[in-house]
Design a protein that fits this description.
By secondary structure, the protein is α/β, with parallel strands linked by helices. It has helices at 10-22, 35-43, 54-58, 70-83, 97-104, 107-112, 152-162, 172-195, 207-213, 220-229, 231-253, 257-279; strands at 2-6, 27-31, 49-51, 63-66, 88-91, 113-114, 116-118, 139-142, 166-169. It is globular. It holds the Pfam family PDH_C.
């Protein structure tokens, strides 16, 4: 089996490492524009081959995993399908609606592309932070368009399962709405909180501030692209939390401590349930 990974950052590099670790008979080809990235990937056993040329990377591949920034995924998928209409294609993007809509406009690409989002990673970027176990036990959401060729969705689901992921399915719109709430809006809020810290406070921050703002260390360019691809859902989520923030300010100003405690207790319960759900096998 020949698997191509387009984009060798944290996620793309981790896909490549996971394939080499869990699918020893597969040959992994990495595609990256940056020469230092390709050199690192080869010298550290991330891939078997590395090239800057997309057509060369995907030629003859059984599966291509697109791990570029989200605003470049749809174009890459269409280009890959044109270069090799027989290969299956999936991705790792954290937004889905715009990508799926753009791809289904191209019949060849629509029949070969199964959109996926492995919910894994960290604030770190770059192939040097990639790990073979990144997807083990992590949710992987597939958002099929309905235009895929027979058996394509099942084959891509099997692939992500083979890397250790827990695969589920939902619509692209539902995915983007949920991710705006659970990932995209929290990242922006963490960035706002980090931005409130004055220089004189930097030497005395505690673990609470560090935990709350950890994701604010993510790549600004990458996250700007995510915001642009999921703009409506993120705005709706921010407006909702804005209303909650206004209510909290009112409760604090009017000494309504019972309302403050109720908010804290409700949030505590939701977080405990989410953590318990994540820890289940």
């Amino acid at each position: 089996m020949r698997i191509a990974v387009v984009g060798l950052g944290l996620l793309g590099g981790s896909v490549a490492r996971a394939v080499r670790d869990r699918m020893p008979d597969a040959r992994v080809v990495g595609c990256a524009r940056n020469e230092k990235t390709r050199q690192y990937a080869m010298e550290n056993g991330v891939v078997d081959e590395a090239t800057a040329e997309l057509a060369a990377a995907v030629r003859g591949a059984d599966l291509v995993v697109v791990a570029t920034p989200v605003d470049a995924i749809a174009h890459a998928v269409i280009e890959i399908a044109a270069a090799d209409p027989n290969t299956l294609i999936t991705d790792v993007g954290s937004t889905k609606s715009n990508i799926v809509s753009a791809v289904v406009a191209d019949a060849t690409a629509a029949s070969r592309f199964i959109a996926a989002h492995p919910i894994a990673g960290s604030e770190k970027t770059g192939v040097e932070h990639s790990r073979a176990d990144l997807f083990v036990g992590r949710p992987v959401i597939l958002t099929p368009s309905g235009f895929e060729s027979t058996g394509a969705v099942e084959r891509v689901a099997d692939f992500w399962c083979s890397l250790g992921g827990n695969v589920s399915h939902m619509s692209a719109d539902a995915h983007d709405q949920l991710l705006a709430i659970s990932s995209h809006m929290p990242h922006l809020m963490a960035s706002l909180i980090a931005g409130q810290l004055p220089p004189e406070g930097q030497a005395i921050v505690g673990t609470g501030w560090l935990d709350t703002t950890r994701i604010a260390a993510g790549d600004p360019q990458l996250w700007t692209a995510i915001v642009g691809e999921n703009r409506t859902a993120i705005v709706n989520s921010l407006r909702s939390i804005g209303r909650e923030l206004t209510s909290l300010i009112d409760a604090i100003e009017t000494h309504d401590d019972s309302a403050v405690e109720e908010m804290l207790r409700s949030a505590q319960t939701i977080r405990l349930h989410a953590v318990n759900h994540e820890s289940r096998p």
